[in-house]
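Technical annex B. To support the medicinal chemistry partners, we prepared a structural model of the target in complex with phenylalanine, based solely on the information shown next.
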Amino acid sequence: MTEENRPKFTTRFGVIAATVGTAVGLGNIWRFPYEVGSHGGGAFLLANILCVVFIGIPVVCSEFLMGRASRRNIFGAMSALAPEGGRWWRFAGLLGVASGTLILSFYAVVAGWTLEYLFQSVSGSLTTEGTHQSHIEFADFTAGWRCLFWTIVLLAINTVVVLRGVQKGIEKVSNWLMPLLFVLLVVMAVNSVLLPGAKAGLEFLFRPDFSHVDASTFLSALGQAFFSLSVGLGTLTVYGSYFPSDTKIVRSASIMAGLDTMVAIVAGVIIFPAVFSFGMEPAAGPQLVFEVLPDIFRQMTGGAVWATMFFLLLFIASLTSTISLSETGVSFCVERWHLSRGKAVACTMGFVTFFGVFCALSFGPMSAMTVFGMTIFDIFDYVTSNIFLPVGGMLVSIFVGWVVDRPTVARQLSPAPRFLCRVVIFLLRYICPLAILAVFLNNILG
Ligand code: PHE
């Protein structure tokens, strides 16, 4: 596909909405709060911000520039930008495309849960009076066929958007949903801060307790930064390839990372004051959002409305991320196999649905199918977050720092000031690969 006829985002707002749309997702609203909760609060937040600034932003810049310089997906970009066609580097690209498909398969399941909880909030059944046992209700739901049903519904909505293409699908949907997401966030945060006893929650989130900091805090903070920024698998390379030629890369990467971190913090501001105000446990793990929050909504005045808002927020955030994950596969199929967009969508979503069924049934009918005690869902989550993403991120930083020729990198990063470009390149060459290697080894050996 040539530079001229490749689809592009049409406005600056569209670029920001789409990139923030991929970054802001379950990682911010579901994963970040329970990571903060289990790593002792504010200290984790501080470690996370350092990782975003010094490691996340340079790698985001790399992916954007690879996409824009080559106008291809990550596989094509590695071939186009490496000398002699990057015979080996292309495998790194392939790893990225595979990660995208696998992440989408389990991510769609959790995104499907948000649809069930949204449905229950709207119908009122989540917050009706009577005895509720959130833990059992959540376990029953995830073990049943409804879980599969919602996964398929989510994938179907996703397919419709991606079929409509880059401008009429991805950009348009992001332009509408992202502002709505920000409004919902602000309204909910204000409500939370006004709850009696909210102060304890805010202190937990913002006051760093350094007695909790150890190597694992820093390493989990880096893992969280990677997942949340959507780096390491080529999603941002694809979006970078849709950037108009005057988009400022360092600036877009900083805005995206800044807003992404802000949304995670605001999600913490929504959740922790409520958790403390109602005397719940902040370190509840992945169940925090699906088990602890429903209990809280039941005790709040207007609980059904707040629950609806919250799960709508979570659904919007996850949909714009699943869209970007599928686009990673779609653009690969279009470019590599010269498929029409329709066929590429069918091919990508066919794979994802196939794997997604196994992930969705991992909590019930297929829960006995385990390897090393992990279900299929757990394996996909573990392998992609702990192995594929860090390896992908490390390869991307080495590729842009050491392999792509300097003038191309400098041209793409301009008009950022020379000094800033130098800092980004220095971080990419030395700091990012070493830091990522440390996380990787910790995850594998630890
Ligand atoms: N960043 C998304 C989130 O925070 C997840 C994601 C990862 C999306 C990788 C695309 C690629 O939920």
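Notes passed to the chemistry partners:
The chain is about 75% helix and 0% strand.
The chain has a mean pLDDT of 91.
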